[in-house]
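Something for you to look into today, if you have time. Could you write out one complete protein record for me, on any chain you like? Leave the record below and I will have a look.
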Amino acid sequence: MSAEIEEGSAFALDFDKLQTIAASGQAVVPVVLQHSEDGQVLFVGYANRAALEATLRERHAVLWSTSRNELWHKGATSGDVLNLVEVRVNCEQNSLLYRVLPATSGVCHTKGTDGRARETCYYRQVASLEELARVEGLS
């Protein structure tokens, strides 16, 4: 990901994301990762069957990395592990909810102004279809 996408204020939503995933041929479902204590949505990822099986077995969030096309054990390199509380499925059985407890205060792979991993990937709000604004209290 480019720094401008991750840190900039220009609105550049990737409307082709699902089409790109479909073109890869990998069968996945979206996964909402939610802090089990405060309900905050941390980020959205994707899981294939192997990722879901590993999540249930290992009791921490495992996803399918759509950028690297491999299993992604969240926190394996960063230390920002997400311990699993429970997995829920939606009514249509086409998405999952991982309710998790972060092992550290960081969740996102991007860093705040303090140099630490952000506590959520949703640290900007859409001000307009051209501009993003930082959310107060989230570096």
Observations:
- Strands lie at 29-35, 41-47, 62-65, 70-73, 82-89, 96-102, 124-126, 132-134.
- The two ends are 19 Å apart (CA to CA).
